[in-house]
Write a structure and sequence with these properties.
By secondary structure, this protein is mainly α. The chain is built from 18 helices and no strands. α2 packs parallel to α6, α4 packs antiparallel against α16 and α17 packs antiparallel against α18.
């Protein structure tokens, strides 16, 4: 980060203040990332965020730091449709506030990380900050389950339920948000672990990843473990293709994948057994599982949401994840839920088919930008991070098909990581073109 700022001083002479500005920016990023996944500390992270914006703008004006906003066009299209939704919103002030958070802050954090993170070394420093934040999340869960709500006396099937109880679950923003956070950060941390030159560091990070999987299991979130399995398959897909292109054997990749998927599958089945009651109406686990899936409330929620979109396909209730309750109070009364538990359907409820199209355009262009390209073969480290980011994208998208935690802290974290990757990829592309010219 520091050297990259110095390289950008095209019209100003170098001085120590440039290094100081970069150091301050890095410190503010550290504070922001540390407090991002923690509940009830919004004030602290907002202070760090806005100070980071000011430092960035000051560095732009004083030192010529170039600002970068990847995916500007799809963001502007999505933002324009969201802004237009204020004209038909049930509660325009509510929708304006949600628009400011999800789109305004999302674009800003994307710009900030893409501006400051412009090389692989800076990217790895940034991921190191994410790892520190991850450690605090694991410690928060451990503190909750040992000191606040001890689980030693509980049957195994009820241990994970301790994470659901009590106001102190705001330490990790609840189990749904926690499971989404874990599947977001684990791909990049895995690659970071693999690339560590020191054995002790690798072992320590493998322990952290093992604890992450354990915490994901304890959330009893079925979608989280299924998503982790899909992320594994996505990573294997890219690694096998790369191995074949290089003429290397891929059996060891499949062996590791089978081992990981076996562990995840075992944990998923165990988690399902702790959640599915076996009784007279469903005397076996298999029948109980089928019964639960057939009667899952999501089928009814999604049918309700689709009917709502079909009734007014070009408009909706206005921007905001929980606008469904304002638009149709019977929905909340019937299901005791605030949204459709599917982020794509939620966009339709808010902005109709134009909102769905704009959101899918943004996500599609994001995937296209993250996708590992052949030109990155000359930079194996960055290629692996591109694979990790694509894997992360697949996991986040899939996870939010059965819920919608792609807002607030999890949404901000996703765009922060995307910005860091895209900033590094863009800088690498320019350097490659410059050297080949």
């Amino acid at each position: 980060m520091f050297n990259k700022l110095h390289a950008q001083l095209s019209r100003h002479s170098y001085d120590d203040k440039g290094r100081t500005a970069a150091g301050i920016a890095f410190g503010l990023m550290a504070i922001y990332l540390l407090f991002l996944p923690i509940g009830q500390v919004i004030a602290i992270r907002n202070i760090a965020f806005f100070l980071l914006v000011l430092v960035t703008l000051w560095s732009h004006k004083r030192y010529g730091l170039r600002l970068h906003l990847p995916l500007a066009t799809p963001w502007l299209i999505y933002g324009a449709i969201a802004l237009f939704s204020l004209t038909y919103a049930v509660d325009p002030l509510f929708s304006l506030g949600e628009l400011k958070k999800e789109i305004g802050y999302g674009m800003l954090i994307l710009m900030l990380t893409a501006t400051w993170i412009r090389d692989t070394d800076s990217l790895e420093r940034f991921i190191a900050l994410v790892i520190v934040s991850n450690i605090f999340q694991v410690l928060a869960v451990a503190f909750k389950m040992t000191a606040i709500d001890p689980v030693w006396h509980l049957p195994f099937a009820e241990i994970g339920l301790a994470l659901y109880k009590g106001a102190d679950r705001q330490l990790y923003n609840g189990v749904g948000s926690l499971s989404t956070y874990l599947i977001t950060v684990m791909p990049l941390i895995t690659v970071y672990t693999f690339l560590r030159p020191h054995r002790v560091a690798r072992i320590a990070l493998v322990i952290l990843l093992t604890l992450d999987i354990t915490v994901l299991f304890l959330t009893s979130n079925r979608a989280g473990l299924i998503t982790l399995a899909v992320e594994t398959l996505v990573a294997v897909f890219f690694l096998v293709i790369r191995a074949k292109k290089n003429g290397n054997p891929s059996w060891h990749i499949f062996a590791i994948a089978v081992a990981v998927l076996t562990i995840i599958g075992t944990l998923a089945l165990t988690a399902m057994q702790t959640r599915v009651p076996v009784n007279q109406t469903a005397p076996t686990f298999e029948k109980a599982q089928v019964r639960m899936l057939k009667h899952d409330v999501r089928w009814r929620i999604w049918s309700w949401a689709i009917a709502d979109i079909r009734a007014e396909p070009l408009t909706g209730g206005g921007f905001g994840r929980t606008v469904m309750c304002l638009r149709d109070p019977k929905f909340c009364q019937t299901f005791n839920l605030q949204h459709a538990h599917n982020m794509v359907l939620n966009k339709g409820i808010q902005m109709g088919l134009p909102g769905i199209a704009a959101f899918l355009l943004l996500m599609g262009m994001t995937l296209r930008a993250l996708w590992p390209r052949r030109m990155l073969y000359q930079n194996p480290r960055l290629w692996l991070y591109s694979v990790a980011a694509t894997t992360m994208f697949a996991g986040v998208f899939l996870k939010n098909m059965t819920d919608d935690f792609f807002v607030n802290n999890n949404g901000f974290l996703f765009w922060a990581l995307v910005g860091a990757i895209l900033g590094t990829l863009a800088s690498n592309k320019k350097n490659t073109e410059r050297h080949s010219a």
